[in-house]
Amino acid sequence: MIATIIIASLTFLGISVTMIVFPNFKIKNVQIDTYWIIALLGAVILLAFSLAPIKDVFHELTASTSVNPIKILVLFFSMTVISIYLDEVGFFRYLAKVATSKAKGNQYVLFFILYGLTAVLTVFTSNDIVILTLTPFICFFCKNTKINPLPYLIGEFAAANTWSMMLIIGNPTNIYLASSLDINFIEYLKVMWLPTLVTGLFEMGLIFLIFFRKLNQKMEYVEDDFVINSKLDLIIGLVALFLCLVFLIISDYIHLEMWLIAASFAVLLIVTVIIIRLITKKNWNYVTSSLKRLPYQLIPFVLSMFVIVVALNKQGISLKIGEFLNKMNPIFSYGIASFISSNVINNIPTSVLFSNIILSSETILPMKATFAAIAGTNIGAFFTPFGALAGIMFTSLIKNQNIKFTFLDFVKYGSIIAIPTFGVCLLMLYII
User: Fold this and answer.
1) 257: phi then psi, degrees, rounded to nearest 5
2) What is the pTM assigned to this prediction?
3) Domain count, the chain
4) Three-state SS across 156-191?
5) How many Cα atoms sit within 13 Å of 352 on the Cβ side?
6) Interstrand relation of 24-27 and 30-33 (parallel, antiparallel or unpaired)
7) What is the residue range of 272's domain?
8) Which alpha helices (DSSP H) does 250-365 contain, by range?
9) DSSP 31
10) How does pLDDT run across 205-256, given as a tens digit for each residue?
């Protein structure tokens, strides 16, 4: 048991340190993140010393349960393909252009429009895609209009990691935790729509009050002449997203697993676009760029974290953690613990770990504990930069735009926004 705890702890510590000190390196112009390499190393050591028996790992990877990590990865990557494709077509930038044109120089209006746009896009796509897409646009727009970008950047990042709670597909942590209890699309939505709505509106008002004076500055409106080059490609992408969401909603009634539905529509989208390219002789940029932008490094990371959790389960560590958390109200114990854990070991490993804690410890109120952990792994992402991979991407993007926003700045705003927002969310989960 001690050896497993030491190896797992060193792995988690190594991931956190590398995210700050040495987040990536390049090999022939290919950027490679270090976080997954540390995770893979920890998993290999556990496997080599049989602390995570290969037989047990193989059994879990081939199990027909909905918590199977391969199924979860397929679901996440399938939805990501559709979202990235829409971004490549220009859908997100077009919406951002429309949003800024509606503000007509009023920063108060612009703030609420951009926050609302981030919220809506996050609900129907995913938080990571929205952050990757809107962050450069916000930086560019604010530079051109000579206004302070922080209210919009912080509003965007906070919104993306709060409204991602609304649907099960909004964040891979939602998928992993909800799948552990076989919570389907509708069951999830019934519980999380109200806490997400109330929490998101509270958060929006809080951020607006924090930046009220900064938003009082007049700005020059700059017309964006961006147009969508291929409306046919846009329609295909939107239809694929819409139909995929519809089938995910009714998945339990048609007896099809969500990963299979998402994979089918992602493949159908790519195949349709390829056929159109072959017929029309158009360029292949949308297809190739979409596939290149997929977060492939997430695959070894999630699988490595899964191996570490198998080792913790084998040694009975997950059970002991669960026994401790079960002594208190699960909404607050699991919620706060997952919030803290996300900022120590990242929210994806936390979701893998907590799904097993909830199952192995036979929590009295497993549903309450699960939704509290979902809230912790989402909102916990904007307390420190390494609460989620999105935080690392976000800080890297704004650094490339020469915008000063240090680690301490992130924690400062995270403290005054994430903590009260999380408190409201837990209170809502307690009430309903």
Assistant:
1) -70, 150
2) 0.84
3) 1
4) HHHHHCCHHHCCHHHCHHHHHHHHHCCCCHHHHHHH
5) 23
6) antiparallel
7) 2-431
8) 251-254, 258-280, 285-292, 298-314, 317-325, 330-345, 347-360
9) E
10) 999 999 999 898 877 766 666 778 788 889 999 999 999 999 988 888 888 8
